[in-house]
């Protein structure tokens, strides 16, 4: 889309902005000028009347959204926070617009007059029309409802339309009115600081190295083209695809390939960030009505000890200890967030400037400062090219009370089968009791579906929303949200407590977009809990350095030690298949497991090995039903179910079943354990399939491999160290 | 999230891996499914028709095996692989013949949906390569009949202005643009779509035939300048034209126009486009002979 760029000046303080509905801005600034005139009307400033006015210079031609954003950011980069003459400000404005819009300066031009490209509008001059004073432009109720509906969301325009259409009647009316109703409402909400309108794929200033900064003076660096970054998923230039765009008229309008499955995020498309702390405070009545009454009551008694929350969930001693440790991390953060927003009005919150403009018809310096602050805003919270998550961390550091410890996240490192979900319940309860929103993000959809009824049972008073691709609750607001990780792209600073499950598993592993999404879904300074049985080494290192808080749960819920894998030498599976022969060792172990009544998982590296190996096993073990499955298997759920129901006694499979499958009474056979697809984490996870039930806690685990490698040794060492820790802490049942 | 640290050996190993991926062509991602799978050896007719670097030649085995190529044509008019009652019924068609590259089956439906509705514009390359195959076949067929045959312009079927704003592009125009660039043809926007019809896939055959009434209009100004350009080239009055294009100085035979669309279902869209253009050409210059042909990506 194309938007209108303008320069607005209040008493020599200028800022550059863009608008999707310029008439809304004109009304807004007209009212502002009116208010100021009333305040100053009593006081006599002899002969200074001209300066009381608010001056606006509008760039006549609408610009593509990203060009307008770039111009506004460029302008404030160079001139933000300075007091400027109108002529100087305008000259800079024209320059910025030309550079950003790719418009040739066209030789010696008279920039003072903007060369006819800009139009000057003055508000608040005596007798200069009642600029929109009595126009019932956008109804206040309506704007509040829209802002409340968008709170904590990161919505593309089409998503915002759907969201509003599914909302309360006031929102439905706006959505039904199409663009001509939506644009002024959004723009008005943005002017009031209730939502932020962003460029979905935003221009970013290229960061100069210290050397480059030294060698190239600022004016020369200015000429470099700005890079683009998707604000929804955090992807940079590498994932941008530039195509001609009919909506903005640009011949190379970038869109983000990385998050295409969630709707197209485009350079000229809007991304609407709803609310933020001030948005909440401002639209309080509407935003707060969502909280369940029972929870509001329980908010009265605030300072619970961690133990009080953890006590009533029937946890094992190890779970209890971890939950308490996590609670002592979570509680100050929940209190801190509320505290800073509700009582600490003077704190420099990111939404403060807009609020001060709106509510207090403030004295000159305040408006001046707030304008500059707001101008600086647009640059301040664009994550730079540093690791994406660090900007969030920085926010966290600044807005938290100083008493809170300095770790930004908390890892619950719980062995497979430790009962992670139960440990999370007290944390959620704590968040809800403070009136906060909680999020559980998990990689797999079946986990989302499984958690949903458990949470509804545990928190009957809370609204639980389940989100996944094709979910019917897509646009609902809830106290507890359970979502697959990709759904997180649609949130922005919404949740006080973010719980991320299996952060080392498939979609997270090596996917910076999901980490970005998870980081921005929580409010700044809120609590982030990570759950994992096998945290990646980089994270283990941060734990050791004290950058991440950590609680280990070294024992399963049934309080028996983890089965330690046994290493056995065996040729490669490919060789076995070529020779059509199975080694006696493997068959002996299998028969003995089958004889004791166990279900046998057989893990192999390659999908193409599953069926042939199953065939070979069928001939070697006549009379035993043997199945095979993999990610390419269309009937995978049925096969897994058949295995669980003991219709198959042996299941040959790949890493696809390394997590989340619980089959009571099972033994694990890992073939080609030295293969490169099985790393330490996946070996530990596969070993974790054995001995999960209380009735058969001592399952058997075998690593069959031609060589012993580091992954196997580390996996075994990790399991043994967990068992040692459990024993030391007295978590194990007396033998 | 923690800032990851970069131990030197894994980093080096990762870089080496990336280098290896770059060097081995077999691991470049499939242009359709984006999986870094092994690529299939392209079929002989693809290798013959497309340039070496065409993306369609780099499909993975899975994708290459599911492309439902139309190999035998049963209807000489619309290029359908099965007998075609629509063309028999139609007595006054304004287009001469249409050819499609593939059947409109589940996988093609999915690819086109990704391209059109989800906006994955990378798919334009393999899809336009498929369209190119249809064009090559049509071109060869015509050359067999008229050896001196040449194309005067390619006309993409337009989408409505609202949809263009919403989608950001016109799929037929994108496909046609790539075809034109490769085959050195002229692209001409001579049509306007007045409104957008209901989603075609939701309509019955009868409704579909009727819904195109008045759906398209010829862009009068564009048609006029197009005709004058045609006549300019045809009249041997400028020496420049003669020296540059000796074969085009004297116009023999009719103007041949090629309409491009993504899907051919009943032919009503192509027919409507051809009809309004024919009307418009007649009104400007009645003696001019115009022939309409069509290529589409898929034939349902």
TrEMBL record, chain A:
SUPFAM superfamilies cross-referenced by the UniProt entry: P-loop containing nucleoside triphosphate hydrolases
Molecular functions per Gene Ontology: 3'-5' DNA helicase activity; ATP binding; DNA binding
Keyword check for Repressor: no
Gene Ontology terms describing biological process: DNA recombination; DNA replication initiation; double-strand break repair
Domain named Helicase ATP-binding: residues: 401-553
Compositional bias (Polar residues): 339-348
UniProt keyword annotations, A-Z: ATP-binding, DNA-binding, Nucleotide-binding
Coiled coil: none
Listed name of the protein: Competence protein ComFA
Species whose genome carries this gene: Paenibacillus cellulosilyticus
Automatic annotation (TrEMBL), chain B:
Transmembrane segments: none
Highest taxon above the source species: Bacteria
GO molecular function: glycosyltransferase activity
Keywords, alphabetical: Glycosyltransferase, Transferase
UniProt family annotation: Belongs to the ComF/GntX family.
Protein name: Putative amidophosphoribosyltransferase
Native source organism of the sequence: Paenibacillus cellulosilyticus
